[in-house]
Structures are given as C-alpha cells and as structure tokens.
Design goal:
The complex is a heterodimer of chains A (about 120) and B (about 140).
Chain A: E1 3-8, E2 11-16, E3 20-21, H1 26-38, E4 43-47, E5 53-54, H2 56-71, E6 75-79, H3 83-91, E7 99-101, H4 104-109
Parallel strand pairs in A: 2-4, 3-5, 4-6, 6-7
Antiparallel strand pairs in A: 1-2
Chain B: E1 6-12, H1 19-32, H2 40-61, E2 69-76, E3 79-86, H3 110-117, E4 120-126, E5 129-137
Antiparallel strand pairs in B: 1-2, 2-3, 3-5, 4-5
Helix pairs in contact in B: 1-2, 2-3
Classes of the chains: A alpha/beta (about 120), B alpha+beta (about 140).
C-alpha cells in the first residue's frame, strides 16, 4: 500500500497513491487508519483522487475509518472522490454516511457543527 | 451489427493480488465492444467490479487455498457470461443476506453488488468443484 501522510492545519492528510482500493489492500488501509487513531490522530482527511476503482472490501475499510473516528469523537473526511467511486457509494447507499468534499481545502474549511471558514464575513 | 464471439479462459492462483489483472481485462473487454450502445465507461467499471467481487468471494469463502481459479468470460451477440470455477468446499450463495443500509456493516456487500449489476447470479456444484456464474444481456 502506497500512502503518504502530512499534517495540514491540525488535521492528518492521507494521500492514497493507488489506482485500486480492493480486497488486496483494504485490510492494510483499515489497520493503518485504526493505528493512526489509536495513536491520537483525531481528524483524518483521506485523499482518494488517485483511486479510480473501489470494491465492497474497499468500502468496508472506509466504513471502518468512519466508525472508528465516530467512536473517538474524531473526524474522517474523504476528498477527491472520482465519479465512478462516487457511484459505488450511491449504489450501496453510503453517500450520506461519509463526509465527502471536492478537495482538501474544502474539507479543512468545514468545521463539523460550526461555521465554514470560507463563509465568514470580514 | 453483428458482434464477434469472444471466449476468454484464464487461470490464476487463489490470491487477491490478481484481482486488478482480471478486473482490468474485464474493463478492456468493455472498451473493445465498439458497437455497444450504452454507457461504455459504466460497463467497463461494472465488469471490473463484478469480476473483482466474484473472485474475492470465491477466494475468501470457497475454501480453495492453494488451488487455481479458472475464470471464463464469454460474449456472444448481446449475451455476457462470466464463470469463476473453484475446487474448494463451496459456500451458500443464497445464505448471503442483503445488507441493511442502516447498519454500517463493513462486509457483505459483494454479492449485493453483483446481483444489482448482473441479470442472474448462480453458484453450483460441478464435477470438479463449484462454479459462480453471472449473466447479463448487454
């Protein structure tokens, strides 16, 4: 699994450098997300812009990240979701479950339960 | 327009590392169906997906470790047939429940996806093991 990690405005940004998220690499991603949360990362943003294919096992790994973040009162956001991957979320009715944003800045600008930074008036 | 008859037969080890290879073959087949009138991009993704889900189910549930899997893809006219042959103990396809969208279970969506995208799905015993067969009219 090729994944890079950086700190971005207090959030942990993960860039997943694989074309596929499937039964071959989904467990590794699931375990990695859990490990990060157990080590104290509370706000995770997963960049999927390089991922053109997700199967049901990949969805399972993303769901695991979502649920584990919820259990820790943390955050798990997805960005850069390609249209075909989005259609997988729709097929499995998970669109409303995940926190999805077009890009990293959009995810960083939104504070759950608060006011988006970019809507503040000067 | 008359569509050529295509028959592919591929044997792979029972390992998830080959999912991408087989999925990509399914995608390429869809791109080669130049007379297909529907959304070819969607068909390519869906063939990749059903092949990936079918192989994953057989690898994880059919109990066929260290035995080769045989994948047969056939297109004749508008009829698409995909078979995944295993030599394991098999599993109960009908016993796989439909996932509840309200329950955020991490597993159990593979067969649901195949059923949604294909016209028929069947898993049965053969002389040499089992076969998962999926059919669709294109």
């Amino acid at each position: 699994m090729n994944i890079t990690l950086e700190n971005k405005d207090g959030s942990t940004l993960l860039r997943f450098h694989e074309e596929r998220l499937d039964a071959h690499n989904s467990k590794e991603l699931k375990d990695y997300l859990l490990e990060l949360m157990e080590k104290g990362s509370k706000k995770l943003i997963l960049d999927l812009s390089e991922v053109r294919f997700v199967d049901s096992s990949g969805l399972g790994a993303l769901l695991s990240g979502h649920k584990n973040a919820g259990l820790r009162e943390g955050r798990f956001a997805l960005v850069g979701v390609q249209p075909r991957v989005q259609s997988m979320f729709e097929l499995t009715r998970l669109t409303r479950v995940f926190e999805i944003y077009p890009g990293v800045e959009d995810a960083l600008a939104y504070v759950p339960g608060g006011t988006p930074h970019d809507s503040k008036q000067d | 327009m008359t569509r050529n008859k295509i028959n592919l037969e591929i044997e792979i080890p029972t390992q998830t590392r080959y999912l991408g290879l087989i999925g990509n073959i399914g995608e390429q087949l869809a791109w080669d169906l130049t007379d297909y009138g529907g959304d070819r991009d969607a068909l390519a993704y869906n063939l990749n997906l059903v092949l990936t889900e079918a192989l994953t189910n057989v690898i994880k549930h059919a109990g066929c470790d260290n035995q080769a899997l045989r994948v047969c893809i056939s297109i004749e006219g508008n009829s698409l047939s995909i078979q995944v042959h295993d030599q394991g103990l098999g599993f109960d396809l009908e016993g796989v429940p439909c996932p509840d969208p309200e329950e955020l279970c991490e597993r159990g969506r593979g067969i649901f996806i195949i059923r949604h995208l294909m016209d028929s799905v069947d898993y049965r015993k053969t002389d040499k093991g089992n076969v998962l067969e999926m059919k669709k009219e294109l």
